[in-house]
């Protein structure tokens, strides 16, 4: 062994020829055991795998499951309630405070007039059970607001390619109702004038469609593969599991009901040639509840034992619901509506991944839907005389803004308030950030508090600093004494506690 190593690594040694090793992946091997498991694996593109027929079947099954399964219904509704909540709130970030308040107030007035929060919840539910949803920006004279803009929701079934265009348009140009440019960006959508599932005759001719420019259409879906143009239901991986859950529940119920009825089997312990009264094989006898029966000579009756539900029934439902909710990053206790098996720490830990997913969904909604809606609202509002402030009255103006959503309620408000106090005192956070965590507008909430106390906004903020730090210094007070050992120690302890 030593000689071999010397020949391999020592200077001047003649290198030996080493045979080439071919590495293998077990998952890439096709064996008799795994052949059927990987039988449906393919190399289709994103659009080919998510063809119109495949998505149609997935949508119909997902909608059926949500409509008939309490867990499926609760999961998609809970997801929409967490993501959208009572609706987003606009906060303008321009230097003109009075203009900010006016724009925020008027946009809120318009959002309530069209039911924007409710439509956003509907869009999030549709994204989960149908994979995608479309919103058309159009003028609606019935909107009870100065801006007559409205957001009309369109189901995924209504966006398709007309038959007359399927032969003329290549597959690279139109993908199931979405017309693309050379950079694969949507430029127009073919939208049916009415739903194909409506009663009455319907065709896919060009006269039944509207060609809408991409600027007026909002397409909400999750892109999971490069080149994907249409969405699939987010609960697609859970559809077989929902079916298993319902079948197992019905099987357990049917077995328990059968065992609970006064049914049994007539049998004898006597040998085949022994003396016993003759009975008709496989004959059935009607029995009344609460009665005693007499049996033929030599025969006995054995009642079916009630062995359902089994001891694993609860464990099965727990695991199947946990697996169902995993594709939505939802913890079990939220999906099942049951936290009986949780303690405080495990509940908080499981919620962290879900809350991060919710924040990502909220940011996605803001980018895809809300910013587009706000830009369209501004474009209409600037055309109304003396409606917006002069600084905002320019076409295609880009006003800085942000969106606030409902905050997440803490399980233990006292502990959260104590941690919040430590973060503020140690300088690890700020009032605007803490208000944002709660889903509140910092300036608006403090303005309301100042009005309630009958003081100015600056006076109210001074009172907050004094109550927090015990003096009139600013919130940066712990950092104003870097040479004080005591303050440095207190700051380190506070940060460790936070």
Name the overall outline.
extended
Count of helical stretches = 16
Biggest sheet character: 4 strands, antiparallel
> Would you identify the regions where 5 or more consecutive residues have pLDDT less than 50?
472-492, 494-498
How far from one another are the termini?
Answer: 58 Å
| Helix-strand string | HHHHEHHEEHEEEEEHEEHHHEHHHHH
The structural class is alpha+beta
Radius of gyration: 34 Å
Percentage of residues in strands: 5-15%
Number of beta-strand segments? 11
- Helix content, binned percent: 40-55%
Quaternary structure of the protein: single chain
User: Mean pLDDT score, rounded?
Assistant: 83
Strands across the major sheet, in which order? 4-5-6-7
Search tags:
11 strands; 3-stranded antiparallel beta sheet; 498 residues; disordered C terminus
What's the gist of this structure?
By secondary structure, the chain is α+β, with helices and mostly antiparallel strands. It contains 16 helices and 11 strands. The strands form 4 sheets. A 4-stranded antiparallel sheet has the order 4-5-6-7, with no helix packed on it. It has a 3-stranded antiparallel sheet with strand order 3-2-8, covered by helices on one side. A two-stranded antiparallel sheet has the order 1-11.
